[in-house]
Design goal:
Blueprint (H helix, E strand, L loop, with lengths): L14 E4 L1 E2 L2 E2 L7 E5 L8 E5 L2 H23 L4 H8 L1 H13 L4
Antiparallel strand pairs: 1-4, 2-3, 4-5
């Protein structure tokens, strides 16, 4: 199998939480969430916030872990043919498409 290229993204872990206004949760907009990661010290801090709800915030926060899981899934098998026999070619195609969408293909 070919090796996937590295993606230059903010290192995990990323954390999803309800957004804050001042010194407490934003009661006026309960769907306001924030995803944070990285660090201020090395300039890699990530902060995404908005009215996207906790379900979407959790999915965004899981992105680095999902990327590594898909990469490991594809690279962990010594034979793509053998892997296709187990999971099906459509699963491999979808996994490669997901890596491509993330810029990691």
């Amino acid at each position: 199998m070919t090796e996937a290229k590295q993606v230059a993204h903010t290192a995990g872990p990323w954390v999803a939480h309800h957004g804050w206004a001042g010194d407490g949760p934003c009661k006026k907009h309960p769907d306001w969430c924030e995803v944070t990661g990285g660090s201020f010290e090395d300039g890699s801090h990530l902060s995404i916030n908005g009215h996207f709800g906790m379900a979407n915030a959790r999915l965004i926060a899981a992105a680095p872990d999902l990327l590594e899981a898909v990469r490991g899934f594809l690279l962990g098998c010594s034979s793509e043919k053998a892997l296709a026999e187990i999971v099906g070619e459509d699963v491999i195609r979808d996994a490669r498409a997901a890596l491509s969408k993330a810029g990691a293909a």
